[in-house]
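hi! just following up on the protien thing from before. the input was this:
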Amino acid sequence: MNKAERVRAAIKKAPVDHVPAGFSLHFPKDSAHGEAAIKAHLDFYHETDVDILKVMNENLVPPIGEMNFPSDWNKLPSYDRHASFIQKEMDLLKALRDAEPDAYLMLTVHGICASTIHPLEAKYGYEPVRRLFVHQMRNEKEPLLEARARVSDALVELVQAAADIGCDGIYYAALGAEDYYYTDEEFAEAVVPYDLKVLKAVRNSGQDIFLHMCKDHLNMERFRPYAPYCDVANWGVYEVPFSLDQGKALFPNATIMGGLANRSGVLVNGSEEEIQQKVHKVINDFGTKGFILGADCTLPTEIELWRVKAAVEAAREV
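and the predicted 3d structure came back as:
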């Protein structure tokens, strides 16, 4: 099997010659855009020998300025695929598809919660914006929800454009299920319908859906409505915490991706032998069917790439 065949077989829960592996990290700021980003992605793909060419997304929904009143969300316009931030990401995606025509190519897409953080984050900071969302949901939610509808339309344009380029899968980073922000009811109203609109568009485009449930202390039950649109499930096994077996029960039809901590543990701090032993144990405990070796989330930008390659190679030994 080549890499793409191996990943597709794992997604279908078919036999594989060995468990495929997919890891990623945010590249340094000077390698986040343009030719430098193309080189950084290709260097990581080749030096680690991962099975998935995962395209990071630093081309975010643009800032909208100050948020003094909920009505200031009206400053956030509608976007189509010709928007500059979408076009820049598609330029990167196309360059990587042209460079690696046989790779399993996967695009990172920030879900509805993250994508409505980005227009305000640079000015106010991550935590203040998250608290602002909760405040608005409980006081004057309509402008926020209307803005999310426009952002979700833009994300639909993004995933459809990716399909036209020949992208194989979408790594959809879903946010908002932390138990210290929204209530279950608020999440169901302010997040679920907008995420599902995008996931349905991915499904209709023919791309695979890698659902990444981001952050810690998640109420994983909130993602149950996402299960019908999930081909691969990935979450913080160690930081939620929520075991691989628990995930398999919540997403019974999905392939599971993960097994290793991303910011601590053997992958970050261990020896090569310890990495090998951990990978062998994870795969032997879970099994080789319907599994992709990965991490809870993105790896540290400064991680030594031999560590990632050691994990990839260890998966090929089981």
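The longest strand covers residues 104-110.
The chain has a mean pLDDT of 97.
cheers
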